[in-house]
Amino acid sequence: MIMESRTAVATMTLDGEEVSFTPGETVYEVAERHQKDIPTLCYDPRLEPFGGCRLCVVELEGARAPVASCTTKAAEGMVIRTRTDAIDAHRTTLLEMVASENRQLDVDPLSGFASQELTTLLDRYDARTGRFAGRQSGVSRDDDDNPFILRDYDLCISCFRCVRVCAEQQGDYAISIRNRGFDTQITTEFGGLLKESACVFCGQCVQTCPTGALGDRKALKRADLPGKIEKTRTICPYCGVGCSVDVLTKEDKLVGVLPAMDGPANLGALCIKGQFAFDFVQHPERLATPFVRGDNGQLREATWEEALDRAAKGFLKAVDDHGRHSVYGVASGRAPHEAAYMMQRFIRAGFGTNQIDNCSRA
Description:
The chain has 362 residues and is of the alpha+beta class.
């Protein structure tokens, strides 16, 4: 007998509409799938639900108080309302309180992928009232001189997304939480610098931060360049994994790199090279023309035709003098895939050997 496998489906009422869901889904996941706009500051779909910011609360019929939709499992027969006057007032008050602790409410988009989340919600709920202005929490680490990650904890709202992504996605556990309540602080072991910790500078903490408390220091150095920020989807050139990235440009200048959260190979993750090592593109010492060695032994500029002819003669001489196994190819990890393909064809088909490698295995 053939048994047919079926996924159980249940129903609930969401803003007056009966919707289906799969047991195990949270109310937030069901609502998001049905295009309900529920705000949140501590939620990242790659992380375990945390329920810290309480912005995602919804009304559950029969419950004594609103419930956090990101941690509440959907159940058969639930009646949920995602927007009411009381819920909107609750969200506005929470945002006003969050904003009251931050030195700066508007940060440059170059800070990171999620850096505009708080700013966007403050504007949506008209929460820039200042009525709770008072003492600010968080102590920034201006002494951390690493070239990649800005640690401006005056803007931290204790959503702990940075700590959680470092642990749950990267597996490094390089950053943690110190103290409690108003004195809560994001820190490393023994309160040291990032370069003295287990941090590998992947940048995941930067890209999940919703306030710019953690920022892309290299990109922010280019914030004053003229022009509008444009995004272009491409593939990281450094290895064969094929991580998807969004290259950020202003006019003709590369200003930063964002990991593609929907990239099939990386899902928002990058290594230190993919995230921060883009300076070679516009480096002032990058060669713009071929060089060949003259009769005096010194390098001089040449045309492509002269350089290619010189290279071809050199290869042929090596094969004639020492045989085909005297030629070995090493491809650059910065070259596009088409160039890598031609490189291996050049060695395998041109010389009949498999002596081809690349720098990406490092």
